[in-house]
Amino acid sequence: MTIHLTALQLGALAGKALMEGCTGKVMGITSRGVFLITGQRILFVTDADYRSPYNIQVISSPGQFDPIITGDDWNFSGNELIFPNKNIGIDTSKAVLWQPALAPMIETTLLEQTRRVDALLQRMVSLDPGKGWLYLASESDLMPESEGFMIREMTDRFLACVKTADLEGSLKAGRSILGRGGGLTPSGDDWLSGFLLYFARTKKVNPFIRDLGQSLTALAFDSTTKISANRIEAACQGWSEGLFLEIVDSLLVSDAEISDIKLERLVSFGHSSGVDTCVGIGAAVKVMNSEHQ
């Protein structure tokens, strides 16, 4: 018996990847859905209601993804995403295409953006102080030679090199951050994607940041997970999951606020991707602020 599912929404990068006749593999399973790969491109089939450039949002019943395992084949033909060995098909013909809207006009100063991102990160700390790289958002002492101490040194080196537009030094530090941590998107990768997203979303990409983003993207495709590499590449265009675009936008608009419900969603997003991406956004804001003091 074939299971027929219907796609409600298709992220712009997912839509671009789904070309007639393309094929691929299942590369990972999470509690929220199924990661697919075709060539170097990733897609995420999910019933979760959130916007992402990679998402194929479907209507499904509990357990309908259960037969799918890592390594399964899939193909795309006639607007249908097919898992031939599992008799599962997803009709994409009526899916609404989503791509990020342009960022709002910037109304706040860099000092105000710094204050806002600090307050946001402290709210996250109050919810789950041990989550991901949140400790980078505080001034607390870390034990020398501990993992946290080494990560803080790595990120501090990276930021110091960025401030002086030292591309070689930034990439050397960036290599040590890429792939740092576990999971489908390691914490270091999420931190870098958040960092680059801020510059692209706010149209603050100068030639140095452009070269840095392109070089880190190339390094990511060689050294970390394909999911991370795709997120870093998209961040350089100012694209990401809708939640993170809202975070950047909330720093720019005078009366914008992030609700407690949205904050909880961020803290629970991925293994620690939500907080790590936000810590990276915060680091970018502070780099910009320091350059304008």
Outline the structure in words.
With 293 residues, the chain is an alpha/beta fold. The protein has two domains: 3-98, Cyclophilin; 110-291, no CATH class. 45% of the residues lie in helices and 17% in strands. The chain contains ten helices and nine strands. An eight-stranded mixed beta barrel has the order 1-5-4-3-2-6-7-8. β6 and β7 (80-83) form a beta hairpin.
- Please tally the β strands and state the result: 9
* Sheet with the most strands, sense and barrel status: 8 strands, mixed, barrel
Strand content: 15-25%
Total of helices: 10
Q: Judging from the principal axes of the Cα atoms, what is the shape?
A: globular
Biggest sheet, spatial arrangement of strands: 1-5-4-3-2-6-7-8
Q: Give the distance, in angstroms, between the N- and C-terminal Cα atoms.
A: 65 Å
Mean pLDDT: 94
Main attributes of the structure:
9 strands, 10 helices, about 290 residues, Cyclophilin, alpha/beta, eight-stranded mixed β-barrel
Task: Write a concise synopsis of the structure shown.
This protein is an alpha/beta fold and 293 residues long.
Q: Could you outline the blueprint of secondary structure elements for this entry?
A:
Blueprint: E1 3-11, H1 12-17, E2 23-30, E3 33-38, E4 41-46, E5 55-59, E6 73-77, E7 80-83, E8 88-91, E9 96-98, H2 110-127, H3 147-163, H4 167-177, H5 187-201, H6 207-223, H7 226-235, H8 242-252, H9 260-267, H10 273-291
Parallel strand pairs: 1-8, 1-9, 4-5
Antiparallel strand pairs: 1-5, 2-3, 2-6, 3-4, 6-7, 7-8
Helix pairs in contact: 2-10, 3-4, 4-6, 5-7, 5-8, 5-10, 6-7
